[in-house]
From TrEMBL:
Pfam families cross-referenced by the UniProt entry: Voltage_CLC (PF00654)
Domain of life: Bacteria
One Gene Ontology CC term in the entry: chloride channel complex
Principal localisation: membrane
InterPro entries according to UniProt: Cl-channel_core (IPR014743), ClC (IPR001807), ClC-type_chloride_channel (IPR050368)
UniProt membrane topology term: Multi-pass membrane protein
Coiled coil (residue ranges): none
Molecular functions per Gene Ontology: chloride channel activity
Record-given protein name: Cl-channel voltage-gated family protein
Keyword Membrane: yes
Segments crossing the lipid bilayer: 18-41, 53-71, 157-181, 193-210, 230-251, 271-289, 362-384
Subcellular location: Membrane
Amino acid sequence: MKFLLPEDDLILEWKRRLVFWSGAISVGIAAILFAVAAEWANGVFHKLLAVSPYLPLLVTPLGLALILFITRKYFPGSQGSGIPQVIASLDPKESRKVREQVLSLRVTIGKIVLTIAGLMCGTSVGREGPTVQIGASIMHKLGSLARFPRHDLEKGLILAGAAAGVAAAFNTPLAGIVFAIEEMSRSFEEHNSTTILMTVIIAGITSLALLGNYSYFGHTSESMGFGKEWYVVIVCGIAGGLLGGAFSRALIEVNKGLSGRMGAWIREKPIAFAAVCGLLLALVGLASGNNTYGSGYSEAKSLLGGNSTLPESYGLLKMTATAISYVSGIPGGLMAPTLSAGAGFGANIAPFFTTVPAGATIILGMVAYFAGVTQAPITAFVIVMEMIDNHEMVLPLMAAAFIAKACSRLVCPTPIFHTMAQNFVYKPPPPKDFGSKTSFIQRESD
């Protein structure tokens, strides 16, 4: 047995710290580069729209079919948001096997490249969910090189990387911490607190150093007093919760596999199904005046700024486009498109409450719909509060988020990301294949 001298312990400890700090910085840099690439991809697609608004009828179906083919053949485990994969990797029963698939360098590269490709084709996806998987992958890989204790490697570092991914992607450090607590682990262990906090801080400093101090959706000073105006909080909470729950329930049911001929055709012809999804995306884009493509960042910002020319149906169309993009099976996140759709729903509610500033109602719509989709109310109101740089709306946002979660559970009893995580598990092969290797089951690819 080899015993380490105190000097050896000190050297090993500093080695771990250096790898840990470099990992946190790497997550911040990766998130920034991913953000820049995503904006570039969105710009490329809008140049295509400038040539002709009908080009997506050809480009989007072909693009989605090609992306799904590459995903299934070369990057299995990279499809979808990325958050379910990280949640699955934290499963104490399956984590070792799942991590080998979903937190590998190959999958990380595929996630980045294919999400960018999806944005170039006009999909309604975001980069924030994929950044969670990227951050977790970076910390997991560097942690294994530094020989961190097993407990930290299996949970603490993965949680820290995921939290840093959210913090760097949205420039919301507090939301990154809350996200790790509420959404990723649904619990919080004091043993991991320092790891998560330090990773988020370092990743946040990296983002600030390279991009400066900015708010994701800008700044709004609009607020609301306590009293009759709070009726809008209840309405937004109920509407956002029910709509978000219906959205999540629909994705879960499709992900389980539809019955009948349609379900059989989707399972047998997934590439053709992706092409059909691409065609539907193009049609929705035309119906929205080319406003449902991409993450929805600029559309939500224009709504909050009060200078939007979006159609009244924007929220519903954005929700539809996001659902189509997700069920197609390609890589891409839900967070930014969900916030954008929520802003659209808030804009629909605003005319009915003329005594409440429209910006305040739009913010409430964002947080309520986001909480309805994720069923993570604390993450919802913290992330929106930090993104808009308005702390005067804390109580209304909090109330709307918790109302939305309660209403969402009436429609969708289980959280979407945790339900989707069940698809990324190992199962033993059937008896007829006895002796073969254990297979990685992805229902989205069945």
